[in-house]
Write a structure and sequence with these properties.
Length: about 270
C-alpha cells in the first residue's frame, strides 16, 4: 500500500476535547520532597479518569520561596532545578509517561547562571514541550531574572499559552498569546486569589474569546470564552479539579473585528 510522502500529508486538526486537571495544594516552603510526594499522590488518585493535562500552582515544587520570610540567596540558589539534571524533573517525566498526560509544573529554574520563575510543560511521554519564564516581575519576584518572550506551545489541542501569576495583570499578555493562536491560557499562580481576581480572569477570557485555567494553592478554576466560570475548586486540602473543556467553543468575533491600526500607543511607554 502506497502512502503519501510526509510533505504531502494533510496535518491532523487539533483535538477539541480536553480533560483538564488543575492541582491545588499549599506547598511547604523549601521542602521539595514533601511537595513532590503530595503532588504525585494526589494526581495518582485520578489516574483512571483520563486527565489530559495537569497544571500546578506557581513554583509549587519549592513552595514559592522567593517570598519566604527566611529567604537567603544561597539557600534560594540551592533549590533551583536544572531541567537537564534535576531528579524532580526526571520524576515529572516518569509520572507524565505513567499517567499518559501532559503536565505543567511550576518550579524555580537554574539556567546559564540565572534563576527563573519557571513552568515546564511535558507531554504524555515525558518529553519537554517547552519552558516558560515569568516575564513581569515585581517586589520579591525581583529575586528572579525576567523572561523575555511570550511563547505558545504546540500540543495535540493546538497552541497553548502559559503565563505565571502577576503576568495576568496586564491584558496585553493574554492578548498576545491569543493572537499567537493560544486556544487556552494556563496560569500557575501563588498570589492574589480573591473574588476580584476571579472576575478579572473571567474578563480576560471574555475579551480574548478563549479559555483560561488558573491553578493556585487555595483555588483552581476554569473560565470560558464567554467570560463564564466553567468550573471551580476551593479547598484547604490538596485536590485536583477535573473538568472537561470543549475548545470548539472558542470564538473569534471581537478578535476578528479589531482595528490594530488604532492601537499603536499600546506598545509605547506611558507619558
Amino acid at each position: 500500500m502506497l502512502t503519501a510522502p510526509l510533505w504531502a500529508q494533510t496535518p491532523r486538526p487539533p483535538h477539541d476535547r480536553m480533560r483538564l486537571g488543575l492541582f491545588s495544594a499549599v506547598p511547604a516552603e523549601w521542602d521539595l520532597e514533601a511537595n513532590w510526594r503530595t503532588f504525585e499522590r494526589t494526581v495518582s488518585m485520578h489516574a483512571g479518569e483520563g486527565v489530559d493535562l495537569i497544571v500546578t500552582p506557581e513554583c509549587y515544587l519549592d513552595g514559592y520561596v522567593a517570598a519566604a520570610k527566611d529567604w537567603e540567596a544561597g539557600r534560594f540558589a540551592s533549590i533551583a532545578q536544572d531541567v537537564e539534571t534535576s531528579v524532580y524533573i526526571a520524576r515529572l517525566r516518569a509520572l507524565a509517561a505513567r499517567l499518559k498526560t501532559y503536565i505543567v509544573l511550576g518550579f524555580t529554574e537554574k539556567r546559564a547562571g540565572k534563576l527563573y520563575d519557571a513552568a515546564i510543560l511535558v507531554d504524555r511521554t515525558g518529553a519537554t514541550v517547552g519552558v516558560y519564564h515569568k516575564t513581569h516581575l515585581q517586589n520579591q519576584d525581583l529575586r528572579f531574572s525576567p523572561g523575555d518572550d511570550l511563547p505558545v506551545f504546540d500540543t495535540e489541542w493546538g497552541k497553548v499559552g502559559v503565563l505565571i501569576c502577576a503576568d495576568r495583570r496586564w491584558p496585553e499578555t493574554v492578548r498576545v498569546l491569543r493572537l499567537k493562536g493560544a486556544r487556552i491560557t494556563l496560569i500557575p499562580s501563588d498570589g492574589m486569589w480573591h473574588l476580584d481576581n476571579e472576575w478579572w480572569m473571567r474578563t480576560r477570557s471574555y475579551e480574548n474569546e478563549n479559555f483560561l485555567a488558573f491553578a493556585h494553592p487555595h483555588v483552581a478554576f476554569l473560565t470560558d470564552p464567554r467570560g463564564q466560570l466553567a468550573a471551580k475548586l476551593q479547598s484547604n486540602v490538596p485536590g485536583l479539579l477535573v473538568c472537561d473543556v470543549d475548545l470548539s467553543q472558542i470564538r473569534d468575533v471581537d478578535i476578528r473585528d479589531r482595528r490594530p491600526e488604532l492601537y499603536q500607543e499600546i506598545a509605547r511607554p506611558i507619558q
